[in-house]
Design brief:
The protein has seven helices and six strands. With about 270 residues, it is of the alpha/beta class.
Length: about 270
Amino acid sequence: MDSPRPHEPVRRDSPERPHERAADRPGERRDLDLLVWDAPNIDMTLSSILGSRPASSDRPRFDAIARWFLSEAADHEVEGCVFTNVHPTSAVSLRGWIEALRSFGYSVFARPKVHPEDDVDDAMLQHIASRQASHRLRRLVVASGDGRNFLTPLEELHRAGVRVVVLSFAEVAGYAQESPLIEFVDLEDVPGAFQVSLGRTRLTALPPDGGWFRPTRPMRALLDDSGPLDHSLRGNDPGAQAGAEESAHAPPPEVGDLGRVPVAHGQRAGTA
């Protein structure tokens, strides 16, 4: 097994170029664009959005993520790192996924998941700090909705002159959307990142001519309900419906799309 330390960044300049850039001279720190991916967090969030364990077609395409990342890298060196936990029961099944990531140019940091506190956040932050020390970190893309661990360090990096982008889902990455120092990109807005629509309720990105929301279950299923109907949802009074949703502590919707809808608030979603 390779050392878990990520490899050196990939050089973006062509080997045929005869001249030496100033950044290539001894003692000079080279410009770097860095992508770090919090696999446990993204997978858990995706499970929550779908209301079940994601199928292979529901998972993001890392080749598309890499192309999007490279599209703004200019002539900087680039490095993509995926950080993941490995449960004892999933070691065999994860091997193919890790090898696929490596074939797309990603380094993979894998940590055993023996105890609940065995997470990868500290390793991500340590790697970011090491790259900031060894290179001129120009752009940092963090794929994680974990604001508790990342908000303060990312804002400090912005103040140090680093362009900071959070790549996640709007439902969970409020810390990035609310911060004036951090750019936010929704994962589903990355071209080609998903083979099929996730069917999220994203009302802030409706098409100009409107769009349909499919029912989450057949209407005749109401005949099988043993409990009383929710009177606050009868009729077409949007105020009454909004009040009912607020009283149920439902999270605010973000954007409309066809297909599945997020799991209802309070309902247990599948875990990664």
